[in-house]
Design brief:
It comes from Cytobacillus kochii. By secondary structure, the chain is an alpha+beta fold. The chain contains 15 helices and 15 strands. The longest helix has 21 residues.
Length: 454
């Protein structure tokens, strides 16, 4: 018995010795904790910095300020410019006015632009709502880019009277890179232009979008199309089971701490004077256009885009999102980081690579993202930017630039449509704000690149 007890004691001592050997020393424990913490905080979060901290000249940035303020003095409405580099916000500036006019009248006390002013992003919605959602769903394996649109939307079929057929061949990728063959736009909100596709009811509009006939056979033309992105928004809703705004606001913006990035902001706690105003007379183009329920007041805090506002109740994959310059900077940093921010990972670098690879035949298109690959894109991104730079524009006057190579992000938000239409009956889409050197963005972007110290 005593012998068995001695054997048991020896076994216990051996086990204790093994445990002591395996236990980390205090210094090793601290090292392990730091390693875990480093992994946890892997993604860069933006901090405030000085231009010289990241190799940019403050003096040269003054030339950017002079360019914009000169245009403001000539009547350009207003702008906000945010520049980030190497994880630091090195410029966050406001210029001019958020609202200068009420219809024809110049306000006696125009509302000054602030760095916190909220903008209608127009087609930048495509990237920072729809693409972000798609990139997340692809990363999670919930959407397959090679899968047919019909798989997600069974009603997306050729109709007997469609002149061009081939909807069964169209994939999610085709929508993203604008090779599906769909028209660039249908004015669903206007019965005179939409005909049988007319709708000012969101659920009916979704059916009309799905029923929209092809303009070209799939894969034969690359035409930038709002309808492609309206369909992508509908796919996101089908896959997630919630509305597009609910999905991106709960799954993307809220986790990032963004409080002003949202659809239908006036319905969600924002007040009108927080916004940059857009068109002076609703959607009438100074009285040249009319359709049922058209707005005639100066727009401020309501999405300008007609399809989004009248036909999609403010929530669509192609337009409808609002944000501030500072919050857009966070979204730019997510892309520069490879898909995450702080402790949060929204999607992975592999997915970003899929979405940002140039397409064929037009290399200025990736999956939604536009790339600075040719002379046409230089008017937006500038010739000074590398050919790999990507981003997007928005009709209301917004521009985003993502330069992974230089770890540089630029967000230029303007309200150039808050100006008179030059000749509404000749061309209702040319505004006084379009005449400014700021309006194509490339001039400002070029000056920013020239501020980088070699």
């Amino acid at each position: 018995m005593r012998k068995e007890w001695q054997v048991l004691k020896n076994i216990v001592w051996i086990l204790l010795f093994i445990l002591l050997c395996l236990s980390p020393s205090p210094s090793n424990a601290k090292s392990n904790t730091n390693t875990m913490q480093a992994k946890k905080n892997y993604y860069t979060k933006l901090q405030i910095g000085l231009p010289e901290d990241v190799g940019i000249s403050s003096e040269r940035l003054k030339v950017v300020d002079e360019c914009i303020t000169t245009e403001i003095s000539r009547g350009f409405p207003g702008a906000v410019l945010v520049i980030i580099k190497d994880g630091k916000i090195i410029k966050d500036s406001a210029y001019g006015f958020a609202k200068r006019y009420d219809g024809h009248s110049v306000l006696s006390q125009p509302i000054k632009m602030k760095t916190t002013t909220i903008f209608d992003l127009a087609s930048n919605t495509k990237m920072f709502s729809t693409n972000f959602a798609m990139q997340q769903l692809v990363s999670q394996g919930k959407v397959d880019l090679k899968q047919s649109v019909q798989y997600y939307l069974p009603a997306f079929k050729d109709r007997d009277n469609d002149e061009i057929k081939g909807k069964a061949k169209i994939t999610v990728t085709d929508l993203l890179q604008h090779t599906a063959g769909l028209p660039s736009s249908i004015h669903y909100h206007d019965p005179k232009k939409a005909g049988v596709l007319y709708s000012q009811d969101r659920e009916l509009t979704k059916k009309m979008v799905i029923a929209t006939p092809l303009k070209h056979p799939p894969h034969t033309a690359q035409i930038y199309s709002d309808i492609d992105y309206m369909l992508l928004g509908i796919i996101i809703e089908e896959v997630t089971g919630v509305s597009l705004d609910d999905y991106v606001e709960k799954e993307i913006y809220k986790p990032l701490g963004l409080i002003h990035t949202k659809y239908n902001p006036l319905q969600k706690g924002e007040t009108q004077n927080e916004f940059a105003a857009t068109e002076l007379f609703g959607n009438t183009r100074d009285g040249a256009i009319s359709f049922p329920h058209i707005r005639k007041h100066t727009l401020q805090g309501e999405v300008h885009d007609e399809k989004a506002f009248y036909s999609m109740a403010g929530v669509s994959g192609h337009a409808g999102l609002f944000s501030t310059g500072r919050e857009m900077a966070v979204l730019l940093q997510v892309m520069l980081n490879g898909g995450g921010y702080g402790n949060l990972e929204l999607f992975n670098q592999s997915t970003i690579n899929q979405f940002t690879t140039p397409s064929s035949p037009d290399s200025s298109f990736a999956l939604g993202w536009r790339i600075n690959s040719d002379d046409h894109m230089h008017q937006f991104f500038s010739e000074s930017a590398p050919s790999t730079v990507l981003g997007h524009t928005g009709w209301t006057g917004t521009m985003t630039v993502i330069d992974k190579e230089n770890q540089l992000g630029i967000c230029l938000l303007t309200n150039k449509r808050h100006s008179h239409v030059i000749d509404p009956y000749k061309n209702p889409n040319v505004f006084a704000g379009d005449q400014s050197v700021i309006s194509n963005y490339g001039k400002v972007i070029d000056l920013i690149y020239k501020a980088i110290i070699s």
